[in-house]
Amino acid sequence: MKWILYVLAGWSTLVTSLFLASLSSNHLIQGLVMSGLVMPIILYLYQKFYRMTGVKPKTPVYSWKRLPHFISGVILAIALATLGFIIGDFQGWIDFEKWHPSEQWFIALTMNILFAFFYEALPEEFGLRGLLYDVLRYRFAAWLSVIFQTLLFVACTIAVAQIQALVGLAPGVSINLFYIILIFCFGICLQLLRLWTGSLWTSIGFHLAYLEIMRFAVSPHLKGLPPIITYHESVPIISHIISVCMMIIGGIIVSLVILGAKRFIRKSK
């Protein structure tokens, strides 16, 4: 039953680190606290887990040798989002007005990339799509491990919001049914990306690209960020719906197709 202890240790590390990071309003401090706490603990738990199972991969999913897959995740997110905008423009749902010069948004985008990488994409992927999935996979079938990991992802977000409310802080996110469904599907997508590439860096790249596309191209007004592009919507928030569906649902479909093709090839051999 040691695997349960590893799940609890990894999950509680993420929840505690997210809460402590949220105590500061400074993005730099938030990123340092989150990655500074999560990364060494998760890597330590990984080594303990490998000793428990007696099996350590020659090239772990988080190995630097798999870093090129980071670009694969970024490119896939950008390609799916671009396809969504093209479809929206073709259908008349989105009317593009202006591309803004890079000097208006480049610095803000660069700073936000650094913040999102160390505060969200890197530690969350190492903890959830990395350690927690691998521990669950040691005990369950792959499809059950994907679902259980994603439920832990949702529970982590809800737990942090509840702790923030208990101590009198404003929750970082608004927990509602739509948001729960969104992050559940997002968690499934990220886990499947890691599975077909065999690299945690794919989900890290996709996660990071998704955040920046949503913040600077789709809904920059929500966070007061400079937009990369401005456009008119025929239906309110249609661009948000299209982008989310194309990146998340599209990522799930692409991953399932590739996983299915790989399984078929293995069987045929």
In short:
With 269 residues, this protein is mainly alpha-helical. The chain has 9 helices and 2 strands, in the order αααβαααααβα.
What is the topological layout?
Layout: H1 2-22, H2 27-53, H3 69-90, E1 94-99, H4 106-139, H5 142-166, H6 177-197, H7 200-218, H8 220-223, E2 229-233, H9 238-268
Antiparallel strand pairs: 1-2
Helix pairs in contact: 1-2, 1-4, 1-5, 2-4, 3-7, 3-9, 4-5, 4-7, 5-6, 6-7, 6-9
Question: Mind explaining what this structure looks like?
Answer:
This protein has 269 residues and is mainly α. The protein has one domain (2-268). Helix content is 76%, strand content 4%. It is built from nine helices and two strands, in the order H-H-H-E-H-H-H-H-H-E-H. It has a two-stranded antiparallel sheet. Helix 5 packs across helix 6 (177-197) and helix 6 packs parallel to helix 9. The longest helix is centred in the middle third of the chain and has 34 residues, at 106-139. The chain is globular, with a radius of gyration of 19 Å. The two termini are 37 Å apart.
